[in-house]
Amino acid sequence: MITIKDDDSKKQAFLTQEGLTKLQDELDQLKTVERRKVASRLKEAISYGDLSENAEYEEAKNEQAFVEGRILELDEKIKNAKVVKSKKANIVQIGSTVVIKNITDGDDPEEYVIVGSAESDPLAHKISNESPIGNAVIDKEEGAVVEVEVPAGLVKYEVIKIS
Length: 163
What we know:
The strands form two sheets. The protein has a five-stranded mixed beta sheet. Strands 1-2 form a two-stranded parallel ribbon. It is elongated and about 70 Å long. It starts with 12 loop residues before the first strand and ends with a strand. Helix 1 runs antiparallel to helix 2 (55-79). It has helices spanning 17-46, 55-79, 132-137; strands spanning 13-15, 81-83, 97-102, 110-115, 126-128, 145-150, 153-162. The chain contains three helices and seven strands, in the order βααββββαββ. Mean pLDDT is 86; it is low at 1-9. It is α/β, with parallel strands linked by helices. The protein is 37% helix and 23% strand.
């Protein structure tokens, strides 16, 4: 995640509007549905008696800790979210959709959305601006060739299209 410190030393999470909405939806689901489910499981487990050897109770307590931890994490991300909007369609920025071609291997061009690390999902072709490729193409224009150091060595990519 790109972080910048402001006067209060708070970390800002760069998100697209879609990413922020997704986090808000997950937070709402955790607060309204998952908390109730866990509370119900805890109540049922407590009714079984002796808590010292009650596996259901331990499992429900662990789930409760996970849910509450995730709620705190999402609250913090949303509170410090900075929604980015692409201003220049001809320069790669967070929120840009780019088509890049691996010219080292001659692979077919692939399309990616450049996002903040909080919403990266490589399987959905959403790569972080902090990933090697994402970082290399940020602030580049169509036609730019970038070199990216990856575990397999140095790879060259060409920015084919930005939208």
